[in-house]
Queue: 4 jobs
Job 1
Amino acid sequence: MLWHDGKIRNSSEAMLTANDRGLSLGDGLFETLPAFNGIAFLKHEHIARMKASADYFSIPFDQKKVERAIDDLAEVNKDPCVIRVTLTRGRAERGLAFPKDPKPEIFATRNPWSHTLAFQKITLSTSSIRRNATSPSSSHKTLSYLDSVMAHADAQKNHADDALMLDQDGHVASTSMANLFALSGRELLTPQRGALLPGIIRDFVIGTAPNIGLTVIEKHLHLRDLLAADLVFSTNSVRLMTMITMIDGDALKQKSTAHYLDLENALKDQILADTNYRI
Amino acid sequence: MLWHDGKIRNSSEAMLTANDRGLSLGDGLFETLPAFNGIAFLKHEHIARMKASADYFSIPFDQKKVERAIDDLAEVNKDPCVIRVTLTRGRAERGLAFPKDPKPEIFATRNPWSHTLAFQKITLSTSSIRRNATSPSSSHKTLSYLDSVMAHADAQKNHADDALMLDQDGHVASTSMANLFALSGRELLTPQRGALLPGIIRDFVIGTAPNIGLTVIEKHLHLRDLLAADLVFSTNSVRLMTMITMIDGDALKQKSTAHYLDLENALKDQILADTNYRI
């Protein structure tokens, strides 16, 4: 299901021209968020992140249109769904230079969301593809997503569920699609900003952890820190929280599940409070 | 002008669906090449590069279709033109995992080519965005091109024509769109493979240089090597060869133009021999 120009139609319908820079140069942004009971979860946070990125990339941002796309698709019915909204710099002449009179393109899709996506346990394998803190594609959710695609594909070849991605200095950055956290006693460690996306659920967890007696520390982490931690998990807007059971074949401890479950319950409570949906 | 499914039509016509991975994830490849007198220049080299990249990314490659797209557009008339052929992994369900039954999309565009694009003199400014040798997007011509877009935009903000891009270790990689060479006496230095695209004109220059008495050395180069060189130039399939006159405000020597002109003439001779077009 596709939202475009205020209308909802079949998503397999041709819509984009060949000279849209989102397609020709990966020159655009996207956000993916779940909706429950017709209400998009943490919508304002996603819109604010997209706006900040659009400003960074000098893509004019029509906030009302983005919000309307999300709301219209969320309200199609009350079934849980995943909404993805895409913003491109729009069609332009050949070449890299920004068009002088940009006409950004906004569209959004709706797909089913299932319980089986969230609160799962997964394994990771370390990717040879490094995140690059100097690349804006590392810290913004852009259409230039191929590094993540290939890291994920390599992980699956290695019979892991997802890739652990390090930055150029060997510090832990994220998975191909999710932020990472490590519980160690009452400390909740997470990689500091730089070569990673400022995840919306990452922000939620950082904001919530003190309420359940955890101290959040954002710092450089190494693979050995994850292996030594009581429990490692990842966060992602669609998959919410995911426990990591193994990295490169090494089983993780999976201790301290009480703190993890406290965070999981806080997130479920937030979803219930915001959307009246109980996971 | 757009080639799609064997037909040539108006390039502003909607053609792609919102769930094509080329658009949603920058999951695809492109090649850009000029055509003169109805003949695409170094077509087989471009097709071979695209095939090698398609194999790397596990995108099924229909070589005959790609060649037909290029030929059909080249033969529209004898005016010099720029052809861009794009290959995407095609439409797919949500998520990063490769589709099990991929249906790659191939299309191509034709735009005018002008003498004013080639054999120009330009200035560079060093980008803060580094090329990342571990990223497949650095060494393949992929649709995830946003780093180059932003590096180019930053250069233009700095009143330079293009960006000098270093790799993560501070070695010279390329410009945002072209490979780099430095002449030093009879030595022709160029960055070694790793964080750069294996350019088609780069290959031509490397192959031709010995014929005019130059020794090609592929090695790590630093910015200081460019500043110390007799002459620095870049190569690109559309702009062919471009002399660099200044980097970050420092004027380059622009000595030894005889060797540069020998290479330029060798390239013009090749175009004449292949296409009967005299630049």
Note: Chain B touches chain A through 58 residues (CB under 8 Å).
Job 2
Amino acid sequence: MSRWEPDAQGRLERAALELYLERGYDQTTVAEIAQRAGLTERTFFRHFADKREVLFRGDEMARAIVALLEDVPPSVAPLDAVGVALESWSEFFDDRRPYSKNRQAVIDANPALQERELIKLDSMATMIAAALRDRGATESAAALTAQAGVAVLKVAFQRWLDDPSNQVLAVHIRAALAELKAVTQA
Amino acid sequence: MSRWEPDAQGRLERAALELYLERGYDQTTVAEIAQRAGLTERTFFRHFADKREVLFRGDEMARAIVALLEDVPPSVAPLDAVGVALESWSEFFDDRRPYSKNRQAVIDANPALQERELIKLDSMATMIAAALRDRGATESAAALTAQAGVAVLKVAFQRWLDDPSNQVLAVHIRAALAELKAVTQA
């Protein structure tokens, strides 16, 4: 078998999610995920540290958001800059809405996965805060803006998952950001 | 040994923290914590589910905050009501600042404890959001306000721990809340 596998990451993600839905997360092994994807366990571990990690691209998303923040003009207020960076992920998620719904159902049913999700989001907030400090924000302004940005993402993502009219994620991010501004100014 | 132990919860908390600092969290057993506190393991498990839980009163704090929110007049804006409820915990923490610093050092050094802390804070946000919906907030306004409130608590708590002038926690909560309003209005 060739060491190079086309879209091995995506195949492993889809195989894992199928098995988690069919048998349950606890009952699924890495060997079974690799087999379902037609790949080896070694290939699995080249892409993911464990069977929790296969559902998360949180680090990838956080790194991309930080990179995007560097390109937002300094004149844009920090929270709006975070909003712009978050919105840039809309297309990625809009293209995988059914996968995302199934993925969230599996996470919501498994405390171990909920923990991992919270850690990913907290790590994302820490990375965004560091990027905002690089843009000149004070330590606490950066921390509060980053936490607020992640709160916007959480609320927007849930509304996007539940949205019967299938509006794109960017619309929900803008709405949640506007609502956060409203509740903090009330 | 009597089944009733004066301040068993506090003795177990202090004994656990001492051992975590002396030997490390991973190297400490529940049996050792109970022994150090002069209590039985059975007493430990009447107060805490496991050796992670002994460092957290998160559920107790969340329940108290929800109860306080019910007493804040409806005319107070939701985020300010959360601020008032959070401030009411200042005295509890101000009375145990050295304990809190040691506790945070242990948590920061142990991923398993960081996970538990994130879960406690997320659970607190969920409970605060439910209380805000009872006050009439919409689902997303309640979620965003609750997440923002918990972000204020996180930032304020860290600043309180690091504060060389030992100002009370309430001062840091008010400052973080004002700063959150500033960054969302910029």
Note: The mean pLDDT of chain A is 92.
Job 3
Amino acid sequence: MRVGFIGLGHMGSGMAENLTAAGHEVTVYNRTPGKMQPLVERGARAAESIADACLGDAVITMLADDAAVERVSFGNGGIIESLGRGAIHISMSTISVDLSEKLTAAHANAGQRFVSAPVFGRPDAAAAAKLFIVAGGTLDDLAACEPLFEAMGQKTFRVSDRPPDANLIKLSGNFLIASVIESLGEAVALVGKAGIDKMKYLDLLTSTLFNAPVYKTYGGLIVDQKFDTGGFSAPLGLKDIRLALSAAEKLRVPMPLASLLRDRLITLIATGGEALDWTAIALLAAKDAGEVSR
Amino acid sequence: MRVGFIGLGHMGSGMAENLTAAGHEVTVYNRTPGKMQPLVERGARAAESIADACLGDAVITMLADDAAVERVSFGNGGIIESLGRGAIHISMSTISVDLSEKLTAAHANAGQRFVSAPVFGRPDAAAAAKLFIVAGGTLDDLAACEPLFEAMGQKTFRVSDRPPDANLIKLSGNFLIASVIESLGEAVALVGKAGIDKMKYLDLLTSTLFNAPVYKTYGGLIVDQKFDTGGFSAPLGLKDIRLALSAAEKLRVPMPLASLLRDRLITLIATGGEALDWTAIALLAAKDAGEVSR
Amino acid sequence: MRVGFIGLGHMGSGMAENLTAAGHEVTVYNRTPGKMQPLVERGARAAESIADACLGDAVITMLADDAAVERVSFGNGGIIESLGRGAIHISMSTISVDLSEKLTAAHANAGQRFVSAPVFGRPDAAAAAKLFIVAGGTLDDLAACEPLFEAMGQKTFRVSDRPPDANLIKLSGNFLIASVIESLGEAVALVGKAGIDKMKYLDLLTSTLFNAPVYKTYGGLIVDQKFDTGGFSAPLGLKDIRLALSAAEKLRVPMPLASLLRDRLITLIATGGEALDWTAIALLAAKDAGEVSR
Amino acid sequence: MRVGFIGLGHMGSGMAENLTAAGHEVTVYNRTPGKMQPLVERGARAAESIADACLGDAVITMLADDAAVERVSFGNGGIIESLGRGAIHISMSTISVDLSEKLTAAHANAGQRFVSAPVFGRPDAAAAAKLFIVAGGTLDDLAACEPLFEAMGQKTFRVSDRPPDANLIKLSGNFLIASVIESLGEAVALVGKAGIDKMKYLDLLTSTLFNAPVYKTYGGLIVDQKFDTGGFSAPLGLKDIRLALSAAEKLRVPMPLASLLRDRLITLIATGGEALDWTAIALLAAKDAGEVSR
């Protein structure tokens, strides 16, 4: 397929590379042009503008937040103005349910198609084409995107014919991950202060009821206190929990655990953790217990 | 081995049966004698008293709470008075760290051995000899118990030479399970109120990052709203979270998520859920969202 | 003074009437024109448009939320376009810190003056000219507004020369009020379920350490379960707590008690309390305790 | 009246002195005898034992916690063994509802009378005979104690004929005070980080809706960051919130705000605040906001 790819950050670079490697005709665009070069060396074409990335069958956006997606979508030279009739905008960023609704309506108005397809997986999974893709859109639109999804992920879940549902599921998933981090943080602070071997404790958990990638990945980061990995920063985590809470408020669903996570992330950022991986909230329980100095 | 088994509830019955089936010489005791009959039919001997169950190499207690374990352990005709020198008391109940410390000291005083070996697994796992056993005690004592553990569980974790550490780990594990239940409850309330198919949502979770028994078991109960299973009742859940919080307070470890879980369990019990499985706290978010009537 | 008054709701009607009674030349404006009639009968002039209310020395806005204040301030025929150079816009609504910053800048750009002066007090206090006015603005600007403040309030606090500070203080004050409501709700649920006389309990509190208007007013509403007073609705309360949390997040200040209040207000609204006074969150503890049916 | 007084700590010393000054025949007892001397110099008699303090019409206990009250009440030479038939034990300590029930029953069994009369007020109020006394007991028993209460307090509230109700009310009152501290802590952290003058802010609050002793006293301590006053230490505060939560759990009343306060107090104690006044929890929000270093 002929596809544009906008946003070559930690996640996007690997995804665009996998599309190129799978034989798709990829045109990449990034605000900081330097990031395009490695992709060009692997066969992609560098777009000169957002409009230039919108000439194919589809354009993918993989950007940091709502503001970035709005910037490239609306206004002069934006995606909605530039994309051909019947072409598809595939939004793979973790954006708000509200913006997803706005994009669904705007593309329909412009005679274009819109698919929301946020992903689960950290940068290493993006590079290895091992992402889980949560796709929302009409059956036809999702089918049309399948060759692209296959090149980037290990599995695609067609969750709903309404694109914003995929965003809500993605946000709820990040809430579940952060819940795991918080619960492990409290449990490790508890057994750690009792003098129990933390690594042995984690092994016990992950070889029994908690035998899942999420416990292994985050549990390992917590026990090793490896928080400067550049995987997923605290401000991005705060953004996602805020978006989940905001969608929940609109739906009138109170989520006290999500509220706790929001407070933890603000605390982390306010006390020197702005550049750390969001997993570092797991240390706050240990800090409040006087186990780890601030 | 010659072993006594005190406490034939949902969990204990299956465990005692597996010991018998494995060829151990088992003497069972239960306050309500009727529960001993099925075991006797399978080859166990019915004890006439607690003292009568303490004549072998070891005696196992599997009871509902601290009060029950204290009752059979201390005082006239209790385990400490009745057990032979060098024989082992294996406490497999989920009891407090405090009581475990008290038993460790009392048995040492009496020239007896004490092993703490609480388990992870619900009644079906107990019946199928698939329990995970968390064992605390000296290496020699744990080695002596191994034939019994093998008959009851799928794996034994030797976590510490201090028996109370095993209890703390067990309590922390139940805290982690309850955290999963709460997080799933909030997430399902959110996507459910948005009109997304809950079973499909759970499938997505458990086939990706949350591919662990704990998400499958509890997620299934939540989506099906099956809370009258008699697996693990709300008051028992409240007891365990209370014991975890109490141990944490003594160690000076604040656990805000555990506090939230405690409030949820009290709410569940206060609003008609006393007889339900503790998984029913997952419905409170949906009730607070007006999705499910109280 | 010649002053325009935009927004004749529960609060604004009384305030505008007091301005008129004090001898000021008042021009009132309301989206629903019927509400202007009683004021006209008392000597005010009915404006034909927002612009028409901006012809004097000052214009006061007293509206429900940010959206309403934005609507009358910006755009064609709005306050910024219509107000004379050197004239003052006095924003008395409880709006966000963000919007207050935006208005401060916009009025400065237009050569106008901006004062932020949100109030404490319910409709009866507004009618009785007993409001507490929290005023932010330059000393000169605040001095210019003083005759108006005197007509509407019992006391004016000049808190800062930056108008948005007054909004932050107002929001923090509403957070403190909601905290009182929540704490009383929990305490009354506790002593109530123990069978203690609630009114006697409240008398004890308010004649000792808690001898303050906020405990008397809200405590009375709680004990009498009078929640359909039309004083301050749950959605308005939720809005204010959300604005406080949002300002706090921007400043990187975690506020766990505010998070709890937000969850309570969402629960209240989701479970049938949308039309009730926000004090009704005090009943949620009793409901969760099974004391009051949902 | 002839009255014994057991417990001459921060509070008890002043109370016993006021009884003596009012003309009562006071026999004092304290575990550390040195504290009796100043009272003897003012006319009290020093008891040689607890039994020796139980020879009059009544004996008052004012001790730190349940354990201390149990120690002097039960067992050989304790109050129950020593007090005459028809004499009154007036328990003024902040003890658990459970212990109060136990004492009510034990004294009734022994043909003695029991009154529970915990107090509101800090040591300065105790010294100035300005305590608020919350009294539970039969009308006759309360009437008999009135001359003593008049010598120690500014007002007595007869709240119930069941002594434990007075303890529940006292615990709920301390919960309300701690709620004020937490809410002020969060609010002051918010406006403080925004650069607003904290003292001015507190003045605004306490001269409007929050015009109550509790806001003035605790607000002043918070703004001045005066936490080493020896008024009421963090561990005592934690004890009271724990007792409130424990009574609430028994009554099946979830109290999420009390849970938050418990976590705050544990955090304070775990991070170096064990010797501080419990008001120091107000600094935790500012610390989590990065405003105050840990």
Note: The radius of gyration of chain B is 20 Å.
Job 4
Amino acid sequence: MILLDGKKISDEIKSEIKVSVEKLIRKKERPPHLAAILVGDDGASLTYIASKIRSCDQVGFKSSLFRYNSDISENDLIKKIEDLNINREIDGFIVQLPLPKHINEQKVLLSIDPRKDVDGFHPTNFGKMALGLKSFIPATPYGIMKLIEKYDIETEGKSCLVVGRSNIVGRPMSILMSLRGRYGNSTVTLAHSKSKNLAELTKKADIIIMALGIPEFLKYDMIKKDSTIIDVGITRVEDKSKRRGYVIKGDVDFDSVSKKAKFLTPVPGGVGPMTIAMLLQNTLDARL
Amino acid sequence: MILLDGKKISDEIKSEIKVSVEKLIRKKERPPHLAAILVGDDGASLTYIASKIRSCDQVGFKSSLFRYNSDISENDLIKKIEDLNINREIDGFIVQLPLPKHINEQKVLLSIDPRKDVDGFHPTNFGKMALGLKSFIPATPYGIMKLIEKYDIETEGKSCLVVGRSNIVGRPMSILMSLRGRYGNSTVTLAHSKSKNLAELTKKADIIIMALGIPEFLKYDMIKKDSTIIDVGITRVEDKSKRRGYVIKGDVDFDSVSKKAKFLTPVPGGVGPMTIAMLLQNTLDARL
């Protein structure tokens, strides 16, 4: 079994990004600048944002965090976004999701200038991706494609099962794996909450991308020998033996699946670190 | 076997559209206005356009055809499109494809105002569709979804195989069938030119959408009993016994498949007439 080492690959990508930033600085140009909007004080959101800001520091990006109270109106939030859209010192920005319930998430995402939409959630970017055009690809699917590329995993004509149809992981993954290209051309099946006989589907797949959110769902007897298994799951499972009171579990039963799969991502250290690296990559691309 | 009668259903839809137009007229408002841009004099394109204009007449729409020589520059064509974008008398317009080779099709499509893009080919509309938002849906996939709805075909949890990954039929179909909704929620597999063992995939599918372009490819022994078969193929096959010298064949061997399928579209008279009806529907929606 070959471990798809997202930690290592993401470090390599970040090093390459850092070199690009240093080139800009030598040319007396300003470094890329990523901004983040955070509404409210959700704990998980704060953790994600802190991690993104830390990564910006690592590669020499400038970063800005704009925080608003959870009672900000939809209109006011959209005005803030419009300010960022026209701010020439900011190359890309993200709106940390989820937003409070009184705010229409789609309306907010639509107000982002697609040229600064480094999360790739705007319909124009999503549509370009689906049509096979150049665009900002959402960071998690982009990171998975990068892992597949770096480990040179054969995808053409392979059966690929994507489990989960979210707009940020499953749906874009299903599209990317079936596009024409060196690391596409798979025969993709997209399974979701209404799918039946999931275990029959997993058993037949050469490549499985799990974005289901059920800890350790995928087990030894549900997969094909020598398959590629990508685990996007990150669920907090209570564990009183740990100081923080929980452990992070993926959708894959790592211990058993690792005895049968050919390629497998660990959790943590697989898809997670790739996601942040690709957000940085999108921001660099927005700058250049 | 139940025939999915696209001719009949499209006539019903056109009648409903006509009623909506008459309401507008009674309110002293102008009828919907569809414009088409045709570059060059490709025979098939002329036939399609003529048929679209005739359908506009049937339902009381105004229509305009803008024809340009095949040597028009890309820039000049885009200028014509920009004129239509701001023309307040035109609700929607289409650019008949294919365009001459010296013109970048994607660049041209990107210049269309998404609010007038009744073909639904602009990335913004395509992305909205993929994200489950309201948008103009490309006419052929929209017509197929309408057939499924009108015949109340069960789709939830069913396995659906889409054969062909074009941006105008296969790709959007694969997305629409797997979206949440009364006539979505299928477990969709998208097969294409790089897929292997196509006959194994077709045999397992509850619903097959064929957009392959190989006449009479799908035969009796390749399908499951009581499946739903939608045939998007329209290939001209030479037939000297016919006055025009050819017959139109679908991707499905109708005679044999009709003995085993539960629902089946004929060719012609299935998906084809639905496509034009849904283009009219999109134009009406653009007017309202």
Note: Chain B has ten helices and eleven strands.
